[in-house]
Structure formats: structure tokens, C-alpha cells
Fold each of these.
Amino acid sequence: MTSPVSDSKRDRVIIFDTTMRDGEQSPGASMSLEEKLELAKILEEMGVDVIEAGFPIASNGDFEAVREVSKIVTESTVAGLCRAHQVDIDRCHEAIKHAKRGRIHIVIATSPLHMKHKLQMEPEAVLEAITKSVGHARNLCGDVEWSAEDATRSERDFLRRAIETAIKAGATTINLPDTVGYTYPSEYADLFKYMVENVEGADKAIFSTHCHNDLGLAVANSLAGVQGGARQVECAVNGLGERAGNAALEEIVMALKVRGDQLPYETGIVTQHITRASRYVSAITGFPVQFNKAIVGKNAFSHESGIHQDGMLKNRETYEIMRPEDVGQGATNLVMGKHSGRHAFREKLKGLGYELGQNALNEAFGRFKDLADKKKHVFDDDIIALVDDALARGSEKIRVVRLRVVAGTEGQSAELTLDVDGEVKTAHATGDGPVDAVFNAIIEIVPHSAALRLFQVHAVTEGTDAQAQVSVRLEDDGRIATGQAADTDTLTASAKAYVNALNNLFSRKEKGRPETAIASGF
Ligand SMILES: CC(=O)SCCNC(=O)CCNC(=O)[C@H](O)C(C)(C)COP(=O)(O)OP(=O)(O)OC[C@H]1O[C@@H](n2cnc3c(N)ncnc32)[C@H](O)[C@@H]1OP(=O)(O)O
Ligand SMILES: CC(C)C(=O)C(=O)O
Ligand SMILES: [Mg+2]
């Protein structure tokens, strides 16, 4: 059997991107001409084989977009979609004739449901429309794709006849869309196998998948189609598309790359460009990418669990089947959270410039776990504040044990327990505001004559659960001592900062040091 489709083409899967056509059919996903031109450049640079830029008969804007994309793209083929109508095809040709490689893509439905109710055409009339439309397109352009809309709900024998009609009329690509996301992988694979083996002239065309995600099976079905003999996959960046979307380009490409042992076909995609394309599509459509989205989600290469982080530090392949760099996602991210373990914590501290001994590490780790229990996101700055805080408090004689504050319109009071050199003391005080009440309680337990010279609070990170970092400066008899503390509770941080300053002041007095501007351990 001689074939106009070369063997090398059959070893490769053509990536047909329909982000600008089917993707744009998503309600709310309209793109401007400028955005489509920029996206076309990104897709071309990424190595997409076919860019479907729009549906030229739909509007002047769509026509213009297909025409302008055709003018600037030189490497990829540019396709425009049309119904099986001469007017659609002529309009499409007007737009894609500027392309170095242009394609006319004709669609007509072949399922009994669509033919009877939507097209209101007899099956034989549909076959006639295929002959006419594909033949007309082929007279205008050497590259014609024909799609059997709702192929997966079409009668097999009629679909076979329709495909044969399209190939006979000159179609070079045959697309069998799962228009409503209805098929199953085994069923879709079988459909392609059957058509590739039984359609007369099947070797003259490339078979293509086009899967929708109504049951979440779009990617699995597309891969099954390839298993069955398809060598073109229609897909969209971030899985954009009608209703639940199309098969996601990034997932198709990486599934083929990572599991070449299962499907030994290459794509021409430079995978390092994937994340850039995803972010651009998300930005121009306003459709956010879910955090746990495969390949391009924020968490796709993030690890928070201690056991996973430990495994990753020993060998990244324990928990990563591909490298984030390979999809342009930057580096693996070991996220510090309540599920993290000591190995990752030590590594994180190293990265932040801290080398702690085992005891200090254990102490800081305990405090980190307490913080992670309270806070949704533990940022690097939180960890720095926490470790600095722990280091500063290492040799303190006075420590905060417990604090309870009542605040509000009825007045403010604080009940504070301190450990003063091993002796636990409690005081109850009121004040002009909750901080004042806390500081008065400290003065009651540890009487001193130092004057408060500075009280400053700032949030370590953003959010209402951010740690407050408090600085306190005390002056006594010409000596100045500063204390700092961080806590998610501003009043606890205030108490600890004051006590830290007091410890520093007493320590300076003991050592007989002269006055100093910054006397904290920082
Ligand atoms: C599965 C898919 O994604 S297919 C692509 C879907 N995308 C779009 O529809 C977006 C662009 N569409 C449009 O802008 C408009 O629908 C247009 C310009 C194509 C047509 O607009 P109108 O002429 O106003 O027709 P309308 O959209 O209301 O109805 C569609 C008509 O096309 C017919 N039709 C639908 N599909 C096809 C087809 N593949 N081939 C031929 N005729 C078709 C319908 O039977 C209906 O015909 P009727 O007017 O004789 O009843
Ligand atoms: C136009 C065709 C390919 C389509 O989008 C579908 O059937 O889903
Ligand atoms: Mg579609």
C-alpha cells in the first residue's frame, strides 16, 4: 500500500492547538486581536504544528484575527474553521491565503441526533455536502481537514462512509471529535483502529482526535485515540474550550514525553515554553489555573509533606516524574507547612543562612510546627523571624509562660505569668489599651525603673494570620536595650519583645557594659 503520508509523520503526533477557536468558544474567554497575535507567537515558538486561529465567517473580528495570524506565523500551519458551506469556505480561504502554510477546516455532524434535529438533513444529503464542501476547499487549498462532528455518537458504518467521502473529495486530515465528551478510552481507541483498518483510502490521511472534557476524560481519550492510530491531537492550552473544555495541550504533550514507553510518538513541542503559554492564556482570558492542575498548576511541583520532602532531598525521582524546569515551571518547591519534617526544615534553614545545632534545631522546629498549626502559609520571613526569636531568647532569665488579655469597649486588662529565673509569677493589671495592660503586668512582676522609648509593630508577611514583629526599646540610667519578638498574636509578641528588652537590659547591667544603641541578640 503506497501512502502520501510519510512514515516519519506516522512516528510523530501533530499538535493542533485550538485555544483561539474552541478555547475562545468558552463563555467569557474572548481574546482581542492583539492578544491572539501575541498568543500565536507564543504557540509558534513553543512548536505547535497547527494553530486554529478562529472561525472566519463568525465575525469580522474573527476573520481579521485568522488573517493577521496567517500573516505573522511562518513555522506553524494556520487553520480556520468553516461549516460545510461555500460562503464559509471562501471566507476562510480569504483569511488563510496569507499564511505560508494554511489549512481549511470543515466540520459537519454525522450523528443521527445532530443530522436529524440540528442540521435537519438526511444522511445522504450530508454525504453530498461533504463531497461538495471538501472538493471546493481542496480547489482553494492543498491542506484540508474534515471533521465529523459528534463522531462518537455516530453510527459506525455511516461514519466510515462519510470519512471515505471526505478522503475521496481531497481531505488530508480526518478528525473524529468526541464533541460532547461522551466516549470512553477503550471505545475511542477502537473507533480509530476500526477506521484506520477499514476506511478505503485511510492511508491518504492523518487521523485526528478532538476530545471534550465533560466527563473529565478528554486527555485519556485523546491518548487512547493515538493508541488506536490517530496522529494528530487537537487540544487547547489549560484545557480551555466549550463547556468543560478540550484536552489540555500541556497534559497531552507531557504524557507523550514522560511515557514514551507506552506511546512511542514524538511531538515538536519545546516543553520549556509550556508554563509561559499557560500563564499568558490565563492572563488574557481571566480564567485562573487551578492550584492542583497537572503540569502548570502552582502546586504541580510543590511538596509540603515531610516524608515526601525527605524523599525529594534524597532523590527527586521519588516524588517527581518530570522536572519542573522541563515545563518552564522553575525549580521544585519544598513548601514549609504543618506536614513538613526536620530534614526539609534543616534544608530550608540552610538556604536561609542558618546552621543550627541539633538542640537549637529541635527547638526551632517545635516552634515552627506550632506556628504552622496557626498559620495557613509559612513564608521564609516567618521562619527567619521565628529562628531569630528563638536565638534571642536562648539565654533569657525572664520568660513569658502564659498571657491572657481582655480587650474591647469595656476596658482592657492582662493576666500574665512569667518565669523569673525559675520562679513562676502571675500578675493581673489594667492599662490604657491592651498593650499598656500587658506592660503594666510585666512591671508588676519585675519592678524596674526603665522607660519605654519605642514600641513598634509590623506584619512579617501579608494576610490577617501574619506574624506580628514587635520591637521594644527601654532606657534605664543611660543604658538602652532593644528587644524583638514575633508571634501571630500581636499582644504575645509585645509581651515577649518587652521581656526580651528587659533581659538584655539586665544582662548589660550585670556585665557592667556602658550604654549601647542596639542591645538585642539580633
Ligand atoms: C462543535 C463546534 O464547536 S462547531 C463550531 C461552533 N462554533 C460556533 O458556532 C461559533 C461561530 N458561529 C457563529 O458565529 C454563527 O453560528 C454562524 C455565523 C456560524 C452562523 O450564524 P447564523 O447564520 O446566524 O446561524 P445559527 O448559528 O443561528 O444556526 C446555525 C445554522 O448553521 C447550520 N449548521 C450548523 N452546523 C453546520 C455545519 N457544520 N455545516 C453546515 N451547516 C451547519 C445549522 O443547521 C443552522 O442552519 P439553519 O439556519 O438553516 O437552521
Ligand atoms: C469543530 C469541531 C472539531 C469541534 O470543535 C467539536 O466537534 O467539538
Ligand atoms: Mg470542540
Amino acid sequence: MEGKITCLQGDGIGPEVMASAKQVLCVIGEKYGHTFHLHDADFGGIAIDTHGEPLPEATLQACLSSDAILLGAVGGPKWDTLAVRPEAGLLGLRKALGLFANIRPVYVHPAVAHLSPLKEEIVQDVDFVVVRELTGGIYFSEPKERTSEHATDTLTYTREEITRIVQHAFELARTRRKKVTSIDKANVMESSKLWREVANEVGANYPDIVLEHLLVDAAAMELIRRPSRFDVVVTENLFGDILSDEASMIAGSLGLLPSASHSLEGPSLYEPIHGSAPDIAGENKANPLAMLYSVSMMLRHSFLLEEEANDVERAISAVLAAGYRTGDLRGEATTTLFTEKVVQELAGVKEGV
Ligand SMILES: NC(=O)c1ccc[n+]([C@@H]2O[C@H](COP(=O)([O-])OP(=O)(O)OC[C@H]3O[C@@H](n4cnc5c(N)ncnc54)[C@H](O)[C@@H]3O)[C@@H](O)[C@H]2O)c1
Ligand SMILES: CC(C)[C@H](C(=O)O)[C@@H](O)C(=O)O
Ligand SMILES: [Mg+2]
């Protein structure tokens, strides 16, 4: 198999976790006889520095012409006061590629369940997926304006936008435990009232799936109280952003959660849910797992390489079981050491075959 992957390493720890991803893709390619054509493109803060904009046209074209896109993270203090920040490039890319469905699996690995700040008995059976709407809502709606005295953000959703993301969640639930939790603020917000109405209408076409509604404040509480009750969670853009960072602590670290973003047609984008972590950037401390799980999602969904994706996940499990962990999980392994162990584990299986 041959595939073109555009690699947007971005800023902060982005290049460090991207280096891990490339090593793992290289060994998977060698082991299974695939050729992954990896193309780097400038994106985020580094693109502002070199091209004066976070999403240069050449980067967008490279993404559009690839089979999949891998992204590290963008942003950092250096660019925080600019009128056009690196994050604007990320929103622009999501919009330009139509990546409306952001899939964020939350899985508690048994080897690290005891490292979650929550009690082990609360987190041990957790396995759910946040389906976050990614190209609408308050991130994009107009008007959006600011003067020194007044600032406005607008939260708009159309029936069409809600329908397609909720349908995506129901289809996903069919492959899982057949439960959808739709999260909104329908006791206050008009956009949420429409969201709930549409979720009910879509749900009527899926009699095999249980649909429940939760208000977002109660959902934030339930995620801590009994996270194992969730299977597929579907919600709007901003709620999904906040709840998924919260959910990462159920798993044990923000450095563990991957994501995939899909459009109706065209390449999908895979990225950790975390940011550029300026506080640890350049120190070889970043947990590469959110990125490596993003690679396994890419292998599975964009290249239909199920065995290879399973192999990456198996190798990660073996390295965790052997006791290697990065600092965010109270371990001492560096990014490069952890990656090396995963690569050795993958290569070792080849030798045994
Ligand atoms: N997709 C993206 O590109 C993305 C996502 C979120 C934030 N950001 C940007 O990143 C910058 C920093 O944001 P922030 O500090 O609020 O969030 P962050 O996710 O970068 O970091 C939050 C905390 O989690 C830790 N952390 C994150 N990823 C880790 C990893 N892989 N291993 C170990 N520890 C990890 C960091 O050290 C930090 O203490 C901002 O500019 C923000 O806009 C980008
Ligand atoms: C960097 C930022 C724009 C982004 C978001 O809010 O979507 C990030 O937090 C994420 O979760 O991918
Ligand atoms: Mg976020």
C-alpha cells in the first residue's frame, strides 16, 4: 500500500511528538511492506515566522492533496498577542477541509488506571467516545467582534449541521454499546433547544440505539462521578473542547488522548487533543501516546490497516505494561526513550514471525 501523509508538526512539543509518529510509521511501513510518503508543511506559529501567516496556501494545498494529515500542535506565548494567532490557522484548516466530525476516544488503559487522579474503581471500565462538532458554533458564527468596551461572540447552529454530527454519533454507537448521550444547555440556549429537537428526530431513525440528553453542567459532573456510564457522547464545538480535556484526566493525562477529524469527503486529520505544552517544550518530556494513538486511528480509518493499527496499540500496551511512563504519568521515561521502546516492540514482533 502507498499513502501520502502531510505532517504538520507545528509548535512547542508538536515537533517532538511528530518525530515519534514518524518513527512508528517508518517501522510499520517496513514491517508490513507499505510506503508512507511523509511530507512536512509549515503550520501554526512556525508558519507565521516563516511565511507571515499560520495556514499558508501551499500547506492547505498539500493537505488537500494527501490521503491523511497528521498534526502535532500549534500555538505558544511567542504568538499570543498577535492579531492572527497560530490557532486561527487550525480553525481555518478545519473549516477549509470541512472536518465537522471530531472523534475523541476516552479509554482507560489498565496499566495506568491507578495513575488517574480519580479512584481506580471509578475509572477502570471507562471506554467512551466524544463526538465533537468541529466546524460550527461559537468558534465560527458571525458576528464576532470586539472594541475596548464591548465584545461579541455568536453561537449559531443550523439544522443541517446538527443533523450530520448527531447522525455520525448514532452510526458510531451502532458499532459500540448502542448508547448516545447528547449534551447541551437546552434549559437556557436557543441553539441547544434546536440541538435537542434535532437529536430526538435523528434518534427516531435509530430504534436500536438508546438516546439520553444531559445538560452540560450535569454532564461535567457525571464525567467525574460515573464516567463508565458513557458510550458515545455527542456535543457542540465548545462543550466538546472543554469536556474532552476534562475527560483526559479520567484516562490519567492530557498526553493520552488522540483524535480524528472527518469530513464528508476528502482527507481526515489526526491529532492529539492536547496543545503545544510550552511549559515542557524542548525538554524531551512530552508523552507521545496521544500522537501514537492518533497514528493508529489514521492507519485504521484512512488506510484501512486494521492489523497494523492493532499492532501499534499492542506495542504501546506492552511498553506500558513493562513500566515505562513519561513524567505526566509520574514516570521518568523521555519522549525519545518511550518511542524507542515502542519501535523496538514493533520490530521485535517482526523478528519473531
Ligand atoms: N490542537 C492544537 O494545536 C492545540 C490544542 C490545545 C491547545 N493548543 C495551544 O497550545 C498552547 C498551550 O495551551 P495550554 O497550555 O492551555 O494546553 P496544553 O494542552 O498545551 O497543556 C496543558 C498542560 O498539559 C500538559 N501536556 C499537554 N500535552 C502533554 C503531553 N503530550 N505530555 C505531557 N504533558 C502534556 C502541559 O505540559 C500543560 O501542563 C496554546 O497556545 C493553545 O492555544 C493547541
Ligand atoms: C487550539 C484550539 C483552537 C483548539 C480548539 O479549541 O478546538 C484546541 O483546544 C483543541 O481542542 O483542538
Ligand atoms: Mg482543546
